[in-house]
Request: fold
Amino acid sequence: MLEIMDYRRSLERSRASRGRQSGQSTFWAHGREWDLFTDVFAPTDSPSTSVALELLGLTGELPAPTGSLLEIGCGAGVIAVMAALAGCDRVVASDINPAAAHNAAANAARHGVADRLRAVDGDLFAAVPAGERFDTIFWSSNYVMAPESYVYEHVHERAYVDPGYETHRRFLAQAPHWLAPGGRVLLHFSSRGDLATLLQLAEETGRRLQLVGSTQIDDWGNAVEHMLIEITALDSPQAMWGPLLRSGELESGRL
Reply:
């Protein structure tokens, strides 16, 4: 597992994906054809998008989100579009990569949900108007931690690694402020990430982490646990959706 957690392996995946993407303009997933723009994360090169759709209930097995949804790190827009198709009446798809925001908008138009899906480009919540609030905030995070000193060489790498978990820290701190009453902040994380550091950041930012769903997949010959984690403020009523996450749970086999 230590090898698959190595950020250099994720950077290699990013470079390989960009190489395969050369000349690619569309892909098929979940019974639909999607546009794929240059330098945008390709869902066909990673299991994370399909796993996220399953954990969110957007493949039919579980209840899907309703009301309004903000997706952070939308990429090509598959999750945001599927949420709109499943019944979310207002979806904002945000990505720090401008090409990804344009890609999500194109896929919203392709699948007939442009009337209820708006794509924006910005770092986390920077492009979201201050007064907007959401019933669900979701981020399928770049859960592999790179060294704090690492400097991205290409925007594509942002979908794969987070140096020093700086973005995770800011997401934990900021996300609950964008919720409508009764809303939920959901994070897609994985055992390829550093759960102990995530828990430490949650404590430092005054947040509670609860496991609300998980599934194990084979990731290039490695058994990897994918988790859907709900984030709440410590001073809010405790949500009763699942067990609290604590240090050592992955190592002890609880997940």
